[in-house]
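agent: user wants the structure for Alpha-amylase from Jiulongibacter sediminis. delegating to structure tool.
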Amino acid sequence: MTSRPLLIKAVLLLFFLISIKSTAQSIDIERVDPTSWWVGMQNPKLQLMVHGESIGTAEVKLNKYNGVKLTGITRVENPNYIFIDLEIKAKAKAGKLRFEFQNGEQSIARTYELRQKQNVDIQSLSQKDVIYLILPDRFSNGDLSNDKFADMADPESDRNNPWLRHGGDLQGIINHLDYLKELGVTALWLNPVIENDQPQTNEGGNMRSAYHGYGFTDHYAIDRRLGGNKKYAEFIQKAHEKGFKVIQDAVYNHVGINHYTVKDLPMKSWLNQWDEYTNTSYKEQPALDPNASQYDRLRMTDGWFMPFLPDLNQRNPLVANYLIQHALWTVQNFGIDAYRIDTYMYNDMAFMNACNAALKAEYPDLFLFGESLANPVPNVAAFVKNNMELDFACNLESTVDYQVHSNMLKALSEGYGWHEGANRLYETLVQDYLYQNPEKLVTYLDNHDEHRFFSVVGEDYRKFKLGLTWLMTLRGIPEIYYGTEILTKNFKNPTDAEVRKDFPGGWPDDEVNKFQKEGRTEIENETFDFVKKLISIRTTEKAIGEGDFIQFMPFDDGVYVYFRTAGDETIMVATNTVNSSKSFSTKRFEEVLKGRKKATYLMTGEELTDLSIIELNAYEALLLKLHD
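agent: tool returned. relaying tokens verbatim.
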């Protein structure tokens, strides 16, 4: 018979053994990012981020695969993550890697696809191009079945509410590629298409959806309300077939609050954290100011853009790898031609240089341009390749030209003066000496964040035509916002939604269809034809698409003249920025005219037989192609 003390010891030992077994953590895998990769990439390194219940507690084994080596494992604060470093050598072939994750007696396996890298035929952008900016949710609804999903954080779609989703999608854009081809634009920039599974947020007392797309929640999924990954690939293929280049909107600075890495943080340092919520100042000056406080600098770069847009810590190498690999994956997977980089100046510049360099090393023809809404001109130039000596040097080739945008509008809205009116634009362009490649800057009159141009000029059709003429003939790469070609108007009052109206005819129940000539009014058709003609000149005239830019100081209280030249081809752009007619001698332009006395009006095809005197009506622009 067993003694009582021995029995108690045996029972305690049994409970101890059971407790050990019961505390063994159950592991699971929910996702692996990147979702797939390629053999044959320039950089042989790949870092997988594996997420799942307690997966970080597991031992990891890669089954033998010729040419692929597991080089490191990184475990972080959150046991639901593990980072796996691989080296994919040149001899590796396409196939499926097999990983085994072991935690005590539990073992799970996961395969990972390596595909053979295919050549991506990237068409870079240049001055020959004209960009057309589309907000997908507001352009056209080609598939009514994907307007809303009950299992998403924002399950609503209502065209009667300016702040909610309206149902526009990629199929809608595909349906109107012929319209865009007729207009003549050459590159399509879509506001972000990546999944924004965000809840509605209270902004200014109104509940608003994330239809604009700037709060990513899954980097590797195109939002299914736009059509998903397959539809995006189809859109790009069909756009390329029709000769369009495709620009994707990249966001590195932040993600949405519903991103899985925010809902389940890999580590505290994944985000820029503050003791209490701290918004960015939206002022770039401290990043450039040699006398700035460290607090002001950090608040600008590390402060959150919005409470619902958590700020990523790009100084964390795991975050940096995650973002860079996604950028590479997107180009290789979809074959885009360019990135427009949102909120560029808020990012860590060392990270941005590394990201840009990685993309250009893999895809030398990929065009990269940022969004740096800075003031004055030197502050814009600081965030792109420039000719200045600063604490940091940016390797970005282009940026949106916020200063030319701003000063074109001022030149059209204020009286002529020493620094006012036409001199605003002239003096801005004088500062091109700050940029290494001013011809690559992306110029614009309006976009999804600005008042509509036609409204800004007081719906003065003369000023509208003058501004469009500047846009299509100045140096740089012009961008026009959807609807500009049919005189779409409005101010951001009370919200941005007012400048993001649905394109009439993009929805099956629309009463008018302005994609068709028959659906447009007489003035809208006149405007469409005017913009179409300007775009044609931009994309076909060598002097504008490839040539140099030569400007003369404004004179006669508002006349601004400049030339575009390429070899023997010369185009003269004469503009009058005041509300009175002007007549002037061309003698002062002889260095460019070179004795030529004749020209062709590019907009009408009419001939001018005497160039000695130019006459301009109020707010008129003339495009003259010189010849002997």
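agent: one observation worth passing along. The domain at 548-627 is CATH 2.60.40.1180 (Immunoglobulin-like).
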